[in-house]
Specification:
With 142 residues, the chain is α+β, with helices and mostly antiparallel strands. It has 4 helices and 6 strands; from the N terminus they run E-H-H-E-E-E-E-H-E-H. A 4-stranded antiparallel sheet has the order 2-5-1-6. A two-stranded antiparallel ribbon has the order 3-4. It holds the Pfam family YCII. Belongs to the YciI family.
Length: 142
């Protein structure tokens, strides 16, 4: 099963403070362990929300809101996508992770839906089959 590992932003990450060389080296080593174990599918750090935008939906209207998103208490500074056997395995990997921030920080673990999870909403399987074809197309471009 897949899990998304979300690194919560901090005041420093939102200010654009980059990780130290030591932190980059520690994370690089950790990422190597994830890759060797066949766990890591993807992972990236994110720029501060000041460089982002949001699109708010209200019926047919769309409103673009430029960052920063000061009103939001919890922002995301980075993520990994992992393939593991269970949430417990994901938790164990997160516990081994170097603290991704220079200060107290938090990492969130969220399970990703599998296509089969949508079976109740797609009783014929047509929509799930179309989704699988798209995923195969994306995988073919890698």
């Amino acid at each position: 099963m897949k899990f998304m590992i979300l690194v919560k932003a901090t005041k420093d990450s939102e200010a654009g403070v980059l990780p130290s060389e030591e932190m980059l080296a520690a994370m690089g080593k950790y990422n190597e362990e994830l890759v060797k174990a066949g766990v890591m599918v993807a992972g990236e750090g994110l720029h501060p929300s000041s460089k982002g935008a949001r699109v708010r939906f209200s019926g047919k209207d769309r409103t673009v809101i430029d960052g920063p998103f000061a009103e939001t208490k919890e922002l995301v500074a980075g993520f990994w996508m992992w393939q593991v056997r269970s949430k417990e395995e994901a938790i164990e990997w997160v516990k081994r992770m170097p603290n991704p921030m220079l200060e107290e920080s938090e990492v969130e673990i969220r399970q990703v839906f599998d296509t089969e999870d949508f079976a109740p909403s797609d009783p014929t399987g047509e929509l799930r089959a179309a989704e699988e074809r798209l995923r195969a197309q994306v995988e073919g471009k890698k």
